[in-house]
Structures are given as structure tokens and as C-alpha cells.
Design a protein that fits this description.
There is one protein chain. The protein is mainly beta. It has a single domain (3-85), classed as PDZ domain (Pdz3 Domain, Roll). 12% of the residues lie in helices and 31% in strands. The strands form 2 sheets. Strands 1-6-4-5 form a 4-stranded antiparallel β-sheet, with helices on one face. Strands 2-3 form a two-stranded antiparallel ribbon. The radius of gyration is 21 Å and the shape is elongated. It starts with a strand and ends in a 26-residue tail after the last strand. The model has no long low-confidence stretch (mean pLDDT 86).
Length: 108
């Protein structure tokens, strides 16, 4: 996964919604970005994973811990992000593909 850092200027509100955390057994991710917000202007991407908040790793961080860390940002909020890797979709099965039959399923 490729990482990038975003610095949101000033004080909150930042304009993004957080989901996940250790208590939800899933990584901390950006679930929503408010149009026109600081997060939108800094090109945060919905679905990307937050790896660190102000230099502190989010590994093992609960949702509440992450929220509190974000709220404590005084001047700027620095987020180290990791691109969400979407699974590549399987191509649709062609209708002319021959599906092998198990011998006991064959009709005589």
C-alpha cells in the first residue's frame, strides 16, 4: 500500500468522519468527507486508512482514542494515510464457457 501525509491547517472542524479502530476489529479509515471542508481541500480520500495521527501510530488505537487524538490537535492535524486497495473485480463468466460436469450429474 502506498502512504501519503496530509496536513490540515488551523483548528477543527476538519470535515471528515472516522470509522473503525481496535475496538471494532478494523483499521481506522475515512468514511466520509464534507464537501468544501479542510479535509476535502487537502485531498483526503474516502476509504483510505489512517496510519498515524500527528506522528503517533494508530496500530492498536481504539476509535475513541483516535477521536480524542484528533480533537487535541492545536495548530494543524497531520495524518499519515495509506491508500485503500480495492479488490479487483472478477470478470463476468462468459456464457459460452463449458462447465465440466461431475460424472454422477451427467444426464444420459
Amino acid at each position: 500500500m502506498s502512504a501519503y501525509t496530509v496536513t490540515l491547517p488551523g483548528l477543527g472542524p476538519w470535515g471528515f468522519r472516522l470509522q473503525g479502530g481496535k475496538d471494532f476489529n478494523m483499521p481506522l479509515t475515512i468514511s466520509k468527507i464534507t464537501p468544501g471542508s479542510k479535509a476535502a481541500q487537502c485531498n483526503l480520500i474516502q476509504g483510505d486508512v489512517i496510519v498515524a495521527i500527528d506522528g503517533v501510530s494508530t496500530e492498536g488505537m481504539t476509535h475513541l482514542d483516535a477521536q480524542n487524538k484528533i480533537k487535541m490537535a492545536n495548530f494543524n492535524l497531520a495524518l499519515t494515510m495509506s491508500k485503500f486497495k480495492r479488490p479487483t473485480p472478477m470478470p463476468p463468466m462468459r456464457m459460452d464457457t463449458i462447465i465440466p460436469m461431475i460424472p454422477h450429474q451427467q444426464v444420459s
